[in-house]
From TrEMBL:
Domain Alpha-L-arabinofuranosidase B arabinose-binding: 333-474
Name under which the protein is recorded: Endo-1
Domain Alpha-L-arabinofuranosidase B catalytic: 3-317
One Gene Ontology term of the molecular function aspect: alpha-L-arabinofuranosidase activity
Keywords attached to this entry: Disulfide bond, Glycoprotein, Glycosidase, Hydrolase, Signal
Keyword Hydrolase: yes
Disulfide bonds: 4-14, 64-69, 159-160, 382-420
One Pfam family hit: AbfB
One Gene Ontology biological process: L-arabinose metabolic process
Length: 480
């Protein structure tokens, strides 16, 4: 069974079901999404490995080998054809031709589900999907529910990383003309405790964390790597729920009447569907989407709890990193980008770069490219790298560039020097995620080493060859 079988059992069937990672019905065996490759602009549908199963990422990998691919369509598994495609211009223009939004890079969000490789939808600012001509989605004050699974560490304070119900003309048609899940840390409209990110409801001209505009004390900051986010609404009643998509249940962060602000009761939902953008095509937000559905009718908490159990059982994971990073061992870290496979992470004094190191290199150079793996200074389930030839000095980032510095014992240093290994994002070796900037990975760029986000605003965040540049082969140390 899939989430949509559970919603149907509960009397609140899915009217839209989107996922690039897995089938959302036990019997679904159709296309999940479509990719388009740059080499010849041809497209390929990607389906599940088997009915009800995980996406066939290998089919994407072979189709996209040697070129790049974009996600062009996220199909609707309900049979209603509520598919998501490149969002058109609206109140705001997107950055692509004709004011459309960008399409997501098809390999930018690799993960595993139940041990099988799959790809999420990586939304960098400017990216957006939409359907303004839907079938069966709630309109007016009709009841509906929705959930989605996001990367809870990938967000920003731009407007608005949303999934759900929006205006059919891509414009701001006034309060109550949307009802979508929002995830991020923008505080312009609403917010909860801590510094965010928060799950909120985008009801148009307002992200609501509870009954009040602005602050509501029951909406916590929540940033599970895989995050289940829920919003549902019916006449003068709505709720926010959320939890860890890898384990445990979902908690209720709001359950009550429509906001203390005019225009939201009754609602004036229009029934379009958006992903990664605001209702008026605001394109400032980032996030990652793995799966999500919209229902007809207001789902019970019990139905949603069963869906959460189904999600946790699906087994979302960042994938297993190479086994070479055992605390106490010494390693060298070799680049995997085609330009640079003779280069290793290396230091000269405090300066960190990639350098060509080989058997004829000097003993000093070999030591400069060798690292003692330590349990992460800031998180024992991650790692830190102590210099082989400069005891007590560790790789750390500062202003997003890597340096070799002495451990000063501060918690900032511990965080800056801690990296969490994941399966290499180009399928080779290991990628190293920053412990305190979770959308950034250790990356070489022009042979200098940074923590970079894919397609972010710094030069070294450039999306070109990102997955290769952040994938490192854990090798035998040049200086054992
Ligand atoms: O409600 C927040 C945002 O305000 C909506 O997503 C957008 O349409 C408007 O700019
Ligand atoms: O590298 C990003 C931040 O820059 C580090 O966390 C901090 O040390 C510096 O301000
Ligand atoms: O670091 C070497 C190369 O520099 C990277 O592969 C590329 O992203 C940048 O141009």
């Amino acid at each position: 069974q899939g989430p949509c079988d559970l919603y149907a059992n509960g009397g609140t069937p899915c009217v839209a079901a989107h996922s690039t990672t897995r089938a959302l019905y036990g019997a679904y065996n159709g296309a999940l999404y479509q990719v388009r490759r740059a080499s010849d602009n041809s497209t390929r549908d990607i389906g599940p490995l088997a009915a009800g199963g995980v996406a066939n990422a290998a089919a994407q990998d072979s189709f996209c080998a040697g070129t790049t691919c974009l996600i062009t369509v996220i199909y609707d598994q309900t049979g209603r054809n509520n598919r998501l495609t490149q969002a058109p211009p609206g109140g705001f223009n997107g950055p692509a031709a004709g004011g459309y939004d960008n399409l997501a890079n098809a390999t930018a969000a690799p993960i595993t589900v139940g041990g099988h490789k799959a790809y999420g939808v990586y939304v960098a600012p400017g990216t957006g999907y939409r359907n303004n001509n839907t079938n069966g989605v709630a309109t007016g004050d009709q009841p509906e529910g929705m959930y989605s699974v996001f990367d809870g560490t990938h967000y920003n304070g731009g407007c608005c990383f949303d999934y759900g119900n929006a205006e059919r003309n891509s414009r701001d048609n006034g309060n109550g003309t949307m009802e979508a899940i929002y995830f991020g840390n923008i505080k312009v409209w609403g917010y909860g405790t801590g510094n965010g990110p928060w799950i909120m409801a985008d009801l148009e001209n307002g992200l609501f964390s509870g009954v009040n505009p602005g602050y509501n004390a029951n909406d916590p900051s929540i940033s599970h790597r895989f995050l289940t986010a829920i919003v549902k609404g019916e006449p003068n009643h709505w709720a926010i729920r959320g939890g860890n998509a890898q384990s445990g249940g979902v908690s209720t962060f709001y359950n009550g009447s429509r906001p203390n602000a005019s225009g939201y009761n009754p609602m004036k939902k229009e029934g379009a569907i958006i992903l990664g953008i605001g209702g008026d095509n605001s394109v400032g937000a980032r996030g990652t989407f793995y799966e999500g559905v919209m229902t007809s009718g207001y789902p019970s908490d019990a139905t949603e709890n069963a869906v959460q159990a189904n999600i946790t059982a699906a087994g979302y994971s960042v994938g297993s990193a190479s086994s070479g990073l055992t605390p106490g061992s010494t390693v060298s870290l070799r680049a995997t980008t085609a330009c640079c496979t003779d280069r290793y992470i290396h230091h000269t004094g405090t300066t960190v770069d990639t350098a060509v190191v080989g058997s004829s290199s000097s003993a000093t150079e070999k030591g400069n490219a060798s690292w003692i793996v330590r349990a992460g200074l800031g998180n024992g389930s991650c790692v830190s790298f102590e210099s082989k030839n400069t005891a007590g000095q560790y790789l750390r980032h500062q202003n997003f560039q890597l340096y070799l510095n002495a451990n000063d014992g501060s918690s900032l240093f511990a965080q800056d020097a801690t990296f969490c290994p994941e399966a290499g994002r180009n399928s080779q070796g290991t990628s190293l995620r920053s412990a305190n900037y979770a959308d950034r990975y250790v990356r070489h760029y022009a042979n200098v080493v940074y923590i970079a986000s894919n397609g972010g605003s710094n030069t070294f965040d450039n999306a070109t060859s990102y997955n290769d540049d952040v994938s490192w082969l854990v090798s035998a140390p040049w200086s054992p």
